[in-house]
Amino acid sequence: MVIEEWKKSGIATKFPTYRNSALVTTHSWQKGKREDDQAEGLWRINDGIYDFTEFIDKHPGGPFWIRETKGTDITEAFEAHHLSTAPEKMIAKYWVRDAAEPRIYTLTLDEGGFYKTLKERVRKELKTIDKTPKRKSDLIHFGVLVSLFLFAIISAKYKSLVALILAGVALCWTVIVSHNYFHRRDNWQMYAFNLGLMNFASWRVSHAMSHHIYPNSYMDLELSMFEPLLCWIPNPQIKSKAMRYVSWVTEPVAYALAFFIQIGTRLFYSFRNTNIMYWHDLLALSIPLSIYLGTGGTVGLLSCLRTWLAMTSIASFSFCLIGLNAAHHDPEIYHEGDTNREDRDWGLFQVDTIIDRGDLKGSQFLVLTHFGDHVLHHLFPTLDHGLLPALYPVLLQTLDEFKGHLRECNHIEHMIGQHKQLLRIQPNPKPPGAGKKEI
Fold first, then answer.
1. Beta strand 95-98 pairing with 408-409
2. Mean pLDDT to the nearest integer, 372-387
3. Cβ contact 181:187 at 8 Å
4. Nearest to 262 by CA among 247, 284, 233, 231
5. How far apart are CA 364 and CA 229, in angstroms?
6. Whole-model pTM?
7. Cβ-Cβ contacts under 8 Å for 245 (sequence gap 6 or more)
8. Which of 100, 165, 414, 419 could be a cystine partner for 325, CB 3.0 to 4.6 Å?
9. Which of 183, 134, 177 lies closest to 389 in space, CA to CA?
10. Cis geometry, peptide bond prior to residue 228 (ω within 30 degrees of 0)
11. Residue in 120, 107, 113 with CA at minimum distance from that of residue 77
């Protein structure tokens, strides 16, 4: 079968099945990946097939990660989520056979390559760095969580627009900071993510398993789930130049409705197909309930619901304003269809898809609430954001050795770049490299 030229992927040998789905969801992504990955119904790491069935409930990170990846290739996810060498030794007893077909992914994780070299250096560095910033991250998370409920109650009780806006921003920050926790083993902080009508379990698929592993590619759910409203892939077959200008007009509406679209899509899919809702989807209702109880019942239930929906819309807009202009979208960085660098190392691919927010450095609060230190977070997602600044010396050293570049800009420059990327329809003819945002 001949693949249309525009469907050829820069990181895989085939166009992902899930992109042909009528409704793109985390479930359709998982289903398509199981069809595509040549994992033979089990788990694939490199060219080996493993059976982790008996290990699902024993997994230190929780059963979710193993259960939800059955039937897929987890090579890159396995590497990125395990800094210790112990898992590499442990999985040997679960090996079943060599895979019958070669991997469909063209990215590499070779010994002596960029990522493996950096990972070894980071492993050594973590033995000596100060771990107390992790405690500060916990305090920041708790602080914004409490503040969202306080501002929500105040806004309803005193009909304060200022308190309503602050409640929306606090909800946005709570969701973003909670993202620091759902890449790891199960913990209570990750549940706060659900207060924004999204769900950490769903985002563990769309964000941790998809976006983090395959950023800016056809396999990135955080690209496809925004289409056709917003399209960052530089391809007129997906969205024409004229319609891309329309994106500039519809973008603010998409921002304000993003949280509602997320849960709406999941509800629609659950009613029509397979249930992808969880009991913890109900946690968001704790906000209007707290408003009602916190005002002593003096504010009617309908008014409490209006306050909740308004602050959620503010949070949704703020989340997209921060998140979609945080790191990944600029004409200078790699998107599907652009020319690849010759070195196909997975770690360098991560670096090539990101421009960091340089204006956030030095503030752990801003880093946590604005997706800061993004390159290091993509390379080592299970590490607390508070630990990442200590790793810059080894990152810069390793990038220099492997001809990689850490690029930075401020939020305004990111917003300008993101809007330029929305309009771009021609692939970059040159591979990722030096540019004005290089440091």
1. unpaired
2. 97
3. yes
4. 284
5. 33
6. 0.93
7. 423
8. 414
9. 134
10. yes
11. 107
